[in-house]
Write a structure and sequence with these properties.
Chain B: Could be part of an ABC transporter complex. The structure holds two protein chains of two kinds. By secondary structure, chain A is α/β, with parallel strands linked by helices. Chain A is 40% helix and 23% strand. A four-stranded mixed sheet of chain B has the order 1-2-3-4, with helices on one face. The chains are: A alpha/beta, B alpha/beta. Chains A and B meet through helix 4 and helix 6 of A and helix 2, helix 3 and helix 12 of B.
Chain lengths: 261, 381
């Protein structure tokens, strides 16, 4: 991508719980307009990093800049302004259980914008259509939805304000392969049309292959590799080799490798 | 990336003969809120009277799904008014966005309006069915509980002593300070009012009889049961409810462990043991309160108080109160468990069930106390 200012810039980040350090001096840049796939073994701190950037986990050391501003030095007002420029989709959906899907999508609109109820209803309908949910899902409660539908509804809520930066925590886990592919297509389209920057924690090798521009790998509290897919495949770090050349990777890799030949 | 909404959505119209050229300017994004809504409304009327219109995107700095959707809606409005409208000058990205966010007339259908009488009848019907359902559930629950208890008696291995002791600790031991305090206070208050009111007839020493009988027969057990319903009944409902929400109850069931035996029975046994014990403590605390007040207001020494009390009450007075305790515990535990298992997916439903649990069990405790009063009166015990 371009040499523009990174949208997210993390320097020397240290986060730990009690005596246990999870992140030990982590550095990471996310360039505008890129889709970053963040990988790492379970329990390595992928979610901790995401939560630290979002300001949900306290950090012991380091600087986190989002949109070029240090999130620690921000006034509460500009922090609020920042929060409407990003959308977050949590792993479990985190839909408000006492609101319908429609009301969930409208919650950020209601909070930040002055729109007529009619337009909000219509926009909620549009978001539902974008994420591939049927219109009759609008008036359902989260507990009445299947796991895949919860994911889609959570994405619709994350997209409610048409954010510039989107955080996705394992967006395709729990989706069937067709749904996951649709999801990837949707992210790709939004990225292309809205200039969306996406920070995606994922284990889905398909997503990594098809929509991520850059991949960052986390191990031992640090980013051990950061670059395009080719660099990951070429890396001889044992964990990366196991990850990208393992049994599960083979099936996906083979057609890709055959293509140029 | 520039800050959003620094330039509001706007447009200008140029007319040449029967065709209009609508030039859009600014950021057509949702961040503009009302301005976006208004601009889109005006846009749909912009080309009125023209035969064909061209919507030019050259001046649009930013466009998002909401903007694209509203512009497309305006275009379709024009089309419906007989104006052949089309887009021009959109970059490939914007063209894709316009296609993705194409306007489709609202599929959100409104629920038909019901008339008030009908709604009332439907509400009444739903309520009656709900009540009937609750009674059936209650009976089924009692049966399942009795079966579980029987099984434990026949086959003591199925008992879960660790769990029972754990719950006994939280329901009984940890409740002692609060139960003792409120009963002490109520004992004081009853004695004080008794002394004041009976003094008018020169019978203030009878305040001791009143405290003794009232506390031991009714107040001690009633206050303790209400406190336990609020304290432990709510906890049981919330625990079982959140376990049900997170499929923990289902996890037990598929392991072949009956939630009734694993979750409800230990809590039930703990409650049935805890409430009589707490009632004894509550009774003592209330009598102590009466004694302190009698000394302070009437100068009755503890020795005299004890003698007077011995004449006023018999063993039966004490037992009448105590015998009610396990039944009240059973009612509290049953309502708490039934409400807990009725929790559905949402946080709101959990709140509603916990409220229902506490309100219903307090009501039932008082109702039961009334039944016992009638019963003991009729057998003159």
């Amino acid at each position: 991508m371009t040499e523009a200012e990174p949208i997210i810039s993390v320097r020397g980040l240290e986060v730990g719980f009690g005596a246990r350090k999870i992140l030990k001096g982590l550095d990471l840049d996310v360039a505008p307009g890129e889709v970053l796939g963040f990988v790492g073994g379970s329990g390595q701190g992928k979610s901790v990093l995401t939560r630290a950037i979002l300001g949900l986990n306290a950090k012991q050391a380091g600087v986190i800049e989002v949109f070029g501003e240090d999130i620690d030095k921000m006034a509460p007002a500009s922090h609020r302004a920042l929060e409407r420029r990003w959308g977050v989709m949590f792993q479990g959906g985190a839909l408000f259980s006492s609101l319908t899907v429609k009301q969930n999508i409208q919650a950020p609109m209601r909070e930040y914008l002055k729109l007529s109820q009619k337009l909000m209803d219509e926009l909620a309908g549009l978001k539902l259509k974008l994420v591939g949910l049927p219109p009759d899902a609008a008036d359902k409660f989260p507990s009445q939805l299947s796991g895949g539908m919860v994911k889609r509804a959570a994405l619709a809520r994350a997209l409610a304000l048409d954010p510039e930066l989107l955080f996705l925590d394992e967006p395709t886990s729990g989706l069937d392969p067709i749904g996951a592919a649709d999801f990837d297509d949707l992210i790709a389209t939004l990225r292309k049309t809205l200039g969306l920057t996406v920070f995606m924690v994922t284990h889905d090798l398909d997503s990594l292959y098809s929509i991520c521009d850059t991949i960052a790998a986390l191990a031992d509290g640090k980013v051990i590799a950061h670059g395009p897919l080719e660099a990951m495949l070429a890396s001889d770090h044992p964990w990366l080799r196991a990850y990208f050349h393992g049994k599960r990777a083979r099936a996906i890799r083979s057609p890709n490798e055959m293509a140029p030949a | 990336m520039s800050k959003p909404a620094e330039n509001l959505p706007d447009f200008s119209v140029e007319r040449v003969g029967s065709s209009a050229r609508v030039v859009l300017r600014g950021a057509w994004t949702i961040a503009a809120s009302r301005a976006l809504e208004r601009a889109a409304q005006n846009l749909s009327l912009a080309a009125t009277g023209a035969e064909n219109a061209e919507i030019d995107f050259a001046g649009v700095t930013r466009l998002d799904t909401a903007g694209a959707w509203l512009i497309d809606k305006a275009r379709q409005h024009m089309a419906a008014a007989g104006i052949a409208a089309q887009f021009a000058g959109a970059s490939p990205e914007k063209a894709i966005l316009l296609k993705e966010a194409a306007y489709a007339p609202a599929a959100l259908d409104k629920a038909p309006r019901e008339n008030a009488l009908m709604a009332l009848l439907v509400g009444l019907g739903a309520w009656s069915v709900g009540m009937a359902d609750q009674i059936v559930r209650g009976v089924a629950f009692l049966g399942e509980l009795a079966f579980g208890a029987l099984k434990v008696m026949v086959w003591p291995k199925a008992m879960r002593p660790t769990s029972m002791v754990f719950h006994l600790d939280s329901f009984a031991l940890r409740a002692v300070p609060i139960i003792a305090t409120i009963n002490f206070l109520v004992g004081c208050i009853v004695a004080q009012q008794g002394i004041f009111q009976l003094a008018r007839f020169g019978a203030s020493t009878y305040a001791i009889d009143m405290v003794g009988v009232l506390v031991l027969r009714e107040l001690g057990v009633l206050l303790t049961a209400i406190m336990v319903a609020g304290r432990s009944g709510s906890a049981i409902t919330a625990e079982l409810g959140s376990m049900k929400m997170r499929e923990e109850v289902d996890a037990l069931r598929v392991m072949g462990i009956s939630p009734m035996e694993a979750l409800v029975l230990p809590r039930m046994v703990a409650l049935v043991v805890a409430l009589p014990l707490l009632t004894v403590i509550g009774d003592m605390a209330a009598l102590f309160g009466g004694m302190v007040t009698s000394y302070l207001y009437n100068g009755v020494s503890p020795q005299v108080f004890a003698e007077r009390l011995q004449q006023a009450i018999g063993m039966n007075t004490y037992l009448v109160g105590l015998i009610k305790a396990p039944f009240m515990a059973l009612v509290i535990g049953m309502i708490a468990a039934i409400e807990g298992f009725r929790v559905e997916g949402s946080a709101e439903s959990l709140g509603r069930r916990v409220t229902a649990s506490v309100v219903n069990s307090i009501f039932m405790v008082i109702f039961l106390d009334g039944l016992f009063a009638i019963f003991f009166a009729s057998i003159s015990y």
